[in-house]
Amino acid sequence: DVQMTQSPSTLSASVGDRVTITCRASQRISTWLAWYQMKPGRAPKLLIYKASILESGVPPRFSGGASGTEFTLTISSLQPDDVATYYCQQYDSDWTFGQGTKVEIK
Amino acid sequence: QITLKESGPALVKPTQTLTLTCTLSGLSLNTTGVGVGWIRQPPGKALEWLALVYWDDAKRYSPSLESRLTITRDTSKNQVVLAVTNMDPVDTATYYCAHRDPTDCFDVWGQGTMVAVSS
Fold first, then answer.
1. pLDDT of A41 higher than 90
2. What is the pLDDT at residue B81?
């Protein structure tokens, strides 16, 4: 099984800050990595796939990066609407999610 | 526009079998490349992928739960059904179905259905 280790578990930042969430895979998964946004009471939303490709309609302040088995989700300028929990997911071998990062406004 | 809607019981007793239905709209289960998966989220915990069925009836299961899961499709109703046997309170969760897109991600999700396991 591919394990995904996501950090931090909680992130508190100010509006306008640049924030980065990291996800590390237990083995090489190429760039088969997606990021999802979850808000309470709403269906998860696909933000990024293939590590860095923005899903249609997602604001360009979101971006994804990859280096070996380490992946990042960056929000260039945090907005109040970005308060949510973010999950990474590998899909190289079945599907495995990270533990999630809760993003809050300071 | 693709939409998915989960349905099933809100409460089951320990040892019972849970049966959940996902109704797909806007896309036929017979369409080449289509896949529908089930994912769950226990309260306060992370998402966990459970199972997926493809347009050609191929199936994949989470290795840790495979012995308890059965996923089937009913193309006449455009529905995907997940059965989970021997339910336990640790299986209390919101269960989601989702469309697997050609990139192998889940691009459209249902709203989820909350299932509690309690006697």
1. no
2. 98
Give pLDDT tens digits for B46-105. Answer: 999 999 999 999 999 999 999 999 999 999 999 999 999 999 999 999 999 999 998 899
Beta-carbon contacts of residue B3 (< 8 Å; ≥ 6 apart): B24, B25, B26, B108, B110
Subunit contact B103:A97, Cβ cutoff 8 A:
no
The reported pLDDT for the residue numbered A45 is: 95
**Taking 90 as the threshold, does the pLDDT of residue B43 lie above it?**
yes
C-alpha to C-alpha distance for A43 and B71, rounded to whole angstroms:
21
Cβ atoms of B92 and B108 closer than 8 Å: no
CA distances from B117 to A98, B13, B16, B50, B89 (A): 25, 5, 9, 17, 5
Pairing outcome for strands A70-75 and A62-67: antiparallel
Q: Do B52 and A100 touch (CB under 8 A)?
A: no
Cβ neighbours of B5 in A, within 8 Å:
none
Q: Which of A9, A49, A50, A94 should one mutate to test binding to chain B, selecting the residue with the greatest count of B CBs within 10 A?
A: A94
Q: Give yes or no for a contact between B57 and B51, defined as CB atoms under 8 angstroms apart.
A: no
- The pLDDT score that the predictor gives to residue A44 is 92
CB contact under 8 A, B110 and A43: yes
